[in-house]
Amino acid sequence: xxxxxxxxxILKSIVKDxxxxxxxxxxxxxxxxxxxxxxxxSRDADIVAKxxxxxxxxxxxxxxxxxxxxxxxxxxWLDISQITSLPIRQYLIYIGKDKLSxxxxxxxxxxxYFYNIINIKNIDCDILIKQDTPDALVLAILCxxxxxxxxxxxKYIIDRLIYHTSSDKKxxxxxxxxxEELSTNRDLKEIIKEQxxxxxxxxxxxxxxxxxxxxxxKEGVEKGKIIALFEFGLNADEIAKRYNKSKKxxxxxxxxxxxxxxxx
Length: 264
Prior knowledge:
Blueprint: H1 8-21, E1 30-32, E2 47-51, E3 55-62, H2 69-81, E4 88-94, E5 105-108, E6 111-114, E7 116-119, H3 125-129, H4 134-140, H5 150-164, H6 169-183, H7 189-198, H8 207-216, H9 221-232, H10 236-243, H11 247-263
Parallel strand pairs: 3-4, 4-7
Antiparallel strand pairs: 1-2, 2-3, 5-6
């Protein structure tokens, strides 16, 4: 799952929360719009939607500092303006690790263009945590923890996700996938794993396990599972206990895979 697009389906499910908590826009009615303009640079806008029949909301999630983002946003504005006469409000939400350095305007010759950039690091996580909805809780992982201990924040978020999704395993898995993916932007992935294991959450419900399993499945089912747990972050001792194998057996498989990586 790419974090600069997060996934359009996930974005659609949280666009009201993003609008309310980050953009201060209350959405009563929303209609998503598909843009199909063909360009040399084949890239669709993340979210384009008619809001309350009043204006068009264009929302982009960006994980990296694009050197010419202002020109990309202007191209999006031109594309959208061809299919509607409604006012267009453009927002880029930056969720990356590095310091924000993208420009939000073009002032050149007779062009005077501007769009909005919101750095999610500057938003107090309490704003989202107090909403106490799964979508808001997941987004909170990207926000400013102020002086709170990251372990305490992660623990609280996971506990509330467990509470809200206790009757729906698929929903819990969906939110844990989102949480783990987004947590990498704040170097919190190891804390997520640690807290998940303390709560006896199945490793198989986390995307890092799936990624490892995909990498290892061609080596055979048993080896695949061992490789998956290694990719997940467990050491040879922990994996050996999990599958009742000797540490030497597990370590040999890990060394074999690591050597193949080096040999590529």
